[in-house]
């Protein structure tokens, strides 16, 4: 059993001082406060629930910075996607594992305890399955095991190249499966996942409306009666128009009207919604999977935060393309995108109150829900997904306890993170992941081979 002593901690019921947490089998088994530390306690300054990163495509981390050069004409999400396909088509299984391990180290050091890996590169270049159909899922599992991050694996069903059941393009064949092949892949990945710690989860991820069909989606959802369901929903205006032309309704409107959307669902990039869609989605109980850095990088647009928050909608944060791994910046940019659009301040909090606390605690709850982790708050019985920050750092030392999360979101960087536990695994100590040098060395070797290929 491990014990953490924190000078202060944000518990489910609020702030407390001199807190001792007992951890056993990855969970918090008891919480005392008002007591001093004991000899073998791990001592930290300020303890918070750690967030889950609800949306990642790990391999894209290795192309960060490669697509920021303007081409003749106008660059867009769609021209970025072509470059991403060309990059992805050269990756070997070994390289995919090394990249995933590197990005998971970076996520843990940023303060995330877990990740939802929206995994769609399944096959060899050209689309031939590996001998083990779940080979690339198992590479992700190996990276999670190496780094100790909590994994919710989300294998993707990707059957079509565009809205209206268009055939896959050459660049898309590595991720193409029909429903039956997807089920074989899912079963193989589920079996292999049992070798990970017990907090690992598996769900399903129909890629998007444009990459599936209504009948496939219904079959898939009917077959999977439990576990998370993630889908890219309305990232780009062109996508919204294409779905409207094909299915006669906007993507969020169509999904809510035709599938049993509830709190198992996570709608990634619910960027383009009418006010009615925004309110209906909030009422469904689904989580909005917001990826502010990637959405800004790709020019997607800004989420309708005020109406969604007023309607009590759940949301969480994802790093998606992994162009930059920063938890504080994701939350900051989420609020700043609202301020820039609306010409106002302190937008993302319903009624009145601390924006930093609302953003952080909502994303902790929403991330845990989307990843099917019993986490998101510090309470007895929950997974020990915890992050410690240094309230005496330059960015935070002037702030009272009630302003600390505003300081974390608006004034600090991830460097205030000192320790991170994922289901009790103490992976970040003194600001560094315990295997960061070895993981980075393997990543460097993989990148050298990739660039030489
Ligand atoms: Zn995505």
UniProtKB/TrEMBL annotation:
GO MF, one annotated term: deaminase activity
Taxonomy, superkingdom: Bacteria
Gene3D superfamilies in UniProt: Metal-dependent hydrolases, Urease, subunit C, domain 1
Domain Amidohydrolase-related: 46-425
One GO cellular component, as annotated: cytosol
This protein's UniProt keywords: Hydrolase, Metal-binding, Zinc
Cofactor: Zn(2+)
Domain spans labelled Formimidoylglutamate deiminase N-terminal: 1-43
Annotated protein name in UniProt: Formimidoylglutamate deiminase
């Amino acid at each position: 059993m491990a014990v953490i002593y924190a000078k202060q901690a944000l518990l489910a019921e609020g702030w407390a001082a001199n807190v001792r947490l007992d951890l056993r089998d990855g969970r918090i088994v008891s919480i005392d406060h008002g007591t001093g530390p004991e000899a073998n306690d791990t001592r930290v300054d300020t303890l918070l629930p750690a967030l889950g990163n609800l949306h990642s495509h790990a391999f894209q981390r290795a192309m960060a910075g490669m697509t920021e050069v303007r081409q003749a004409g106008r660059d867009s999400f769609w021209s970025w996607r072509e470059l991403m396909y060309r990059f992805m088509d050269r990756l070997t299984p070994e390289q995919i594992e090394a990249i995933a391990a590197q990005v998971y180290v970076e996520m843990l050091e940023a303060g995330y305890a877990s990740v939802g890996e929206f995994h769609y590169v399944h096959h060899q270049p050209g689309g031939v399955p590996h001998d083990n159909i779940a080979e690339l899922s198992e590479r992700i599992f190996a990276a999670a095991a190496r780094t100790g991050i909590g994994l919710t694996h989300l294998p993707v069903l990707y059957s079509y190249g565009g809205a209206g059941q268009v055939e896959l393009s050459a660049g898309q064949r590595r991720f193409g499966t029909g429903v039956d092949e997807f089920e074989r892949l899912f079963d193989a990945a589920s079996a292999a996942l049992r070798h990970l710690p017990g907090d690992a989860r598996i769900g399903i991820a129909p890629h998007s409306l444009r990459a599936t069909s209504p009948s496939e989606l219904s079959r898939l959802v009917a077959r999977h009666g439990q576990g998370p369901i993630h889908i890219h929903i309305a990232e780009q205006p062109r996508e919204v128009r294409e779905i409207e032309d094909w299915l006669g309704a906007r993507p969020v409107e169509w999904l809510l009207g035709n599938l049993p959307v509830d709190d198992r669902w996570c709608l990634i990039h619910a960027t383009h919604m009418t006010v009615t869609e925004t309110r209906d989605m909030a009422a469904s109980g689904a989580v909005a999977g917001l990826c502010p850095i990637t959405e800004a990088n790709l020019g997607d647009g800004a989420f309708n935060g005020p109406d969604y928050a007023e309607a009590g909608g759940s949301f969480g944060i994802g790093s998606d393309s992994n162009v930059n791994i920063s938890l504080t910046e994701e939350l900051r940019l989420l609020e700043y995108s609202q301020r820039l659009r609306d010409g106002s301040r302190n937008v993302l909090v319903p009624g009145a109150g601390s924006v930093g606390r609302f953003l952080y605690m909502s994303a902790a709850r929403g991330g845990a829900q989307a990843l099917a982790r019993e986490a998101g708050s510090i309470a007895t019985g929950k997974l020990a997904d915890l992050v410690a920050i240094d309230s005496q750092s330059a960015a935070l030392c002037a702030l009272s306890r009630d302003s600390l999360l505003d300081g974390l979101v608006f004034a600090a960087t991830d460097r205030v993170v000192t320790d991170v536990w994922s289901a009790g695994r103490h992976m970040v100590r003194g600001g560094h992941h315990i295997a960061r040098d070895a993981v980075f060395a393997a990543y460097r070797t993989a990148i050298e081979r990739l660039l030489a290929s």
